[in-house]
Amino acid sequence: MTPDAPAPAALTAWLRGLAGYERAEALALRPVAGGASNLTFRAPLVHAPLPAVALRLQRERGIFEPYDVPREAEVLRRLAPSPVPVPRVVGVERDDSVPGAPFAVLEWVDAPHMGEAGAEARFDAYADMVARIHALDWRALGLDRVLEVPDPADAERRWLERTAARLERFPGADDPLLRRALALLRERDPAAAELALCHGDVNVFNYLVRGGEVVAVVDWEQARIGDPRADAAQLLALAHLKGAPFGPARDHPFVRLWERARGVGETRGLAWFRARWLFELGVIHRGWVAFNDGEPWYSRALLAELLERALDEVGHAPPPR
User: What is the pTM of this model?
Assistant: First the structure.
């Protein structure tokens, strides 16, 4: 079930219960295109501290279930004093009777994302920001009170099993390729080399830029404490689906820039993480087809081809310790 957006008048009434928003008025609620999970709307305001806000409305079912918008908002609150720029949290509603689902109201950051910023989209600034996220002292920020802190020995197994649980809930759970991928990934499961805050969705659409710099990182619903290699490998998997050639993981420019920004040497074990992300994108494809008409922006055929290559690489590589 997908909740309906509240009417502008309903959002206005809710906002007026917040300090500083007593005279606020929401002029409209406009859907934000491009999101594939929680619903996002832009609401221009008058008589308010901000010219516009983003409404994040929680889904019940979808490709990244289970959803928890209040948890995402708390992650943003904890990140506010950090060197990672995020939208400020205006307020959170946990009562699912208003307007049928929990929601969060966030500052609207008026800046294009990396995918539409043209010459302002600097790939090095993007990689630097991902590295900055991984360098955060997440305990000092109190994120250990919001996010589960796994044992490094099974951090990635836990994440893999969450994806496997979603596969069981989607039609097509008996998919032979996804079943084979899950079995191999379980068999070769790596211990985390380190624990860091992972954004969980390093898609370029979630990095907003202005003047060549990243001015906000958005969509933190998949944030977790885990192995930072998972974030880097997600970018690789998405890049391959968009046409980047499949080769050694460290040959991708993002990996080199990310390593340089982190001040580390060669990152080992990325093959497993790339295969894990392609497996997850296979599960997402199943979920997308279940909840929408047609395929997502990538085809099942291309995903299957890339996953086969990634599994072959993992099967012939030493365990990624």
Answer: 0.92
